[in-house]
Each structure stands twice: as C-alpha cells, then as structure tokens.
Amino acid sequence: MATKVELPSRKKGKHQKQIWVPKRKTQETFVLAYPFFFNNRLMGDIVYFFEKEKLKLKGMRLMHVNEKFIENHFKNVGGEPQGEHPRLSWVSYITNRPVIAMIWEGHDAVRRVHEKTSTQEESLFWFDDG
C-alpha cells in the first residue's frame, strides 16, 4: 500500500508534484516476560529494552497463566527455553508465579523482537507473532 503525497513547488504558478510513497508496515507482536523479571523488579529494563528499538508499548498486563496457555505458548514459539532447571519444569515455574504479557507495535516488529529475544542464550522472555 502507498499514500499520495504532494510536494511543494518553488516556482509561482507551478502545480504541485504528486508522488506515491510506500507505507511502512506496522506490526504487533506478543511478548511474555517470565516471572524472573517481575520478581527481580526488572520490568523497567524490559520496557527500555524495546523502546530503545523504537517500538511502542500497546498494552501490558500482570497476570497468572494456566498450564494450557503456557503449553500452547511453548508450542507456538518452538519449545521450552534451553537450560531447564533440573528440579523445576518451565510449565510449573511459569504457572505458579505472575508473568507480564505485553503487546509491542512498530515497523517490522515481529522480526525485530525475534532477533533481540532469540540472541539471548537462555531467553527469559519469548515472543509470538500471533
């Protein structure tokens, strides 16, 4: 999609030139911050992390999730994080503590968030483009 833009003319009596400028595709993506961030008061760091990437926070909610939600989330993002604690399953860890669910918006947001979160060796927050 594109939008029509009129360029001002420097000469008197000249018609303005019209050009078509492509619109930048704005996307939304879901980010789930695991209990570690809430328990260690690091939510400001998370917000700063994404705002630094010129993304806009559309919504954020502190919530508890059930097993069905988190299992579906892991299925959508490709499995549980690496480096699982031997005495504690990720599903149990996440369902027994509060998580922060966020929607971030911006140009090419899905790819940019994925690049930033998947570079973490043991990412404590994951995203989903759905």
TrEMBL record:
SMART domains membership: NDK (SM00562)
TM spans (from-to): none
PANTHER family: NUCLEOSIDE DIPHOSPHATE KINASE
Enzyme class: transferase
Gene3D superfamilies the record matches: Nucleoside diphosphate kinase-like domain
Name of this chain's protein: nucleoside-diphosphate kinase
Cofactor(s) listed: Mg(2+)
Domain of life: Eukaryota
EC number assigned by the record: 2.7.4.6
Known catalytic reactions: a ribonucleoside 5'-diphosphate + ATP = a ribonucleoside 5'-triphosphate + ADP; a 2'-deoxyribonucleoside 5'-diphosphate + ATP = a 2'-deoxyribonucleoside 5'-triphosphate + ADP
Family, as annotated: Belongs to the NDK family.
InterPro entries assigned: NDK-like_dom, NDK-like_dom_sf, Nucleoside_diP_kinase
Keywords for the protein's UniProt record, in alphabetical order: Kinase, Transferase
One Pfam family recorded for the sequence: NDK
SUPFAM superfamilies noted in UniProt: Nucleoside diphosphate kinase, NDK
Record-level Gene Ontology MF annotations: nucleoside diphosphate kinase activity
Organism: Papaver nudicaule (Iceland poppy)
Residue span(s) of domain Nucleoside diphosphate kinase-like: 26-130
BP-aspect Gene Ontology terms: CTP biosynthetic process; GTP biosynthetic process; UTP biosynthetic process
